[in-house]
Amino acid sequence: MQSIRVDLGERAYSIHIGSGILDDASLYAAHLKTGRAAIVTNTVVAPLYLERLRRALASAGVDTIDVVVADGEQAKDWRTLDQVLDALLRARCERQTPIVALGGGVVGDLAGFAAAVYQRGVPFIQVPTTLLAQVDSSVGGKTAINHPRGKNMIGAFYQPLVVVSDVATLATLPPRELRAGVAEVLKHGFALDAEFANWLEANVERLLAGDADALTHAVRRSCELKAGVVAADERESGRRAVLNLGHTFAHAIETGMGYGSWLHGEAVAAGMVMAAELSARAGLIGEPEVRRVRDLIARAELPVAGPAELPLERYLELMAVDKKVAHGRLRFVMLEAIGRAVLRADPGERLVREAIAAATAAAVAP
Amino acid sequence: MQSIRVDLGERAYSIHIGSGILDDASLYAAHLKTGRAAIVTNTVVAPLYLERLRRALASAGVDTIDVVVADGEQAKDWRTLDQVLDALLRARCERQTPIVALGGGVVGDLAGFAAAVYQRGVPFIQVPTTLLAQVDSSVGGKTAINHPRGKNMIGAFYQPLVVVSDVATLATLPPRELRAGVAEVLKHGFALDAEFANWLEANVERLLAGDADALTHAVRRSCELKAGVVAADERESGRRAVLNLGHTFAHAIETGMGYGSWLHGEAVAAGMVMAAELSARAGLIGEPEVRRVRDLIARAELPVAGPAELPLERYLELMAVDKKVAHGRLRFVMLEAIGRAVLRADPGERLVREAIAAATAAAVAP
Fold first, then answer.
1. pTM of the entire predicted model
2. Would you list which residues of chain B are within 8 Å, Cβ to Cβ, of chain A?
3. Could you give the ipTM of this predicted complex?
4. Are B97 and B143 within 8 A, CB to CB?
């Protein structure tokens, strides 16, 4: 097992990463003071891991109540949030009763937001069971639900007391979701750490094969890198934007294709190739760096180009909407080098068009 | 105009108190950076003050959108919160767009919670127009909505950027609500500051008559006193409990009579007499101090005893419920002196009965 500390002053917390640690009661014990806890999970994860977690907490002398919500993004809504809050109130959970999120990003976002607002905030513990949640949601304190008018529009920044990331749970993850999580891992290498990018070039196949040591290292290093950025910018103003490498393009892909048809990680993968192509056209990196980005993404069995169905003009339309929302100040996260992302002003429509086209042509080629 | 600073580190903010300052644009200008703001108010306050506030903000170059919600406690619900959030989304309000709460405690709690969760937190400005909101909600950062299973069960601690308390707005307040606000002012004197209690004994009639200077001083001193306690205990663990002087009894009165039939301040007034009677029986203060508490409350035209319809046994039943919720550790805020409240263990049922009975008998007597 490896542990890191996310340094946020009085809200600092630990992330424990290892194989088979889900039911290590000692990792939770220090944070379970009242003899009770509420576990929030979903219908897919509950049959796999709920009983093990429940038994681990029972061995620490903790009674649990379970709240099992529906699977999928549609569970990030008012109705499901109210299901959680109502269950907490019915069980007379108090301000000291922790909420434990057992599941992927949706469960973490939903349960975390419930923890942020139940009685103005109760202790929160995360047990992420997807790679995306382990490398992304476990650091940063973002919690939210969706509103019919926009994703993640209602939420809070709320930090957990502890995160327990058991990489053995990734064995039950559909391979496509594992790969989508790997996209976020690659992003941390490309955006933040050349050495980690090198390690990923040597080990990406081990991640796809579910190698526990490789996954543990990848999750730990991703969390460390993200934590470094977040600690410097907890409420997301400037520096934190570099974590959005590829996201301007990914957003256009996700919206253009309809949310859910491409996984977020898949869109980010293609978006990172576009960001690399744009960076090269802006004179920040050379063709060899673009090739490294594209090749590693391809080895991870992730898309290196946007969907053929999405025409270039549609990207530009969708980006224009983003630009309007941002009061005309559309900025792009670009690469100055492998491992060094920077936020730059829009380099102009011609280069953006070329970058998207380049990452579309590449897909059509064999 | 008087100004105080609530010292909460990076979340520190100023409260400005004066007569006719509602439309002093200079008080808001520093916090309005984007040229837009959303004003949340209700159907009673809007006709009185919305246009003045809107014009003041316009003179600072700020376009406003208005969200006018229903009047009354029932507006602190999911449905009304969603009305506010939906209006913000429709108007494409961004993370930098401030929400201005114009109204009493309900509007402040609702708009403050909306500000806490809209896009994970946007700037919040409070313009309280009731005495209760000026002396209570303006310090402490408590925001919330109600849940069918409990009041204030869903909320957040969220601090405003600035509070503008115009005591001239209190002229449009129903006298009964003004008196209920005075109860909270008296509470700050009794619980926290003997000198302020003396001042109130000399000036309580001026407050009831709407004297601007007296109101300005009372609001300022109340905010200062509450801010001192809150700064030491932002998230409400120990010391902050002394602000609940009279509340254990008040809670029984409010629940026993059905919420709304007694105003909160009225129940707190009677509850403070009971707390004083209990403190005397526990040997902490003498009969002269109890008389001072009772007399000042009576001069404020507030109830010095619980409702005749509520039998002694019903108080004890309702307190037993609170006790169960608190895992058997019912504690009482008592007075060690006028101006010095302390949190003490339950002194036993006999004394509690006597204290309630004493404050009931006192009411029946002329």
1. 0.92
2. 78, 82, 85-86, 89-90, 92, 94, 113, 116-121, 142-144, 147, 149-150, 152-157, 235, 325
3. 0.90
4. no
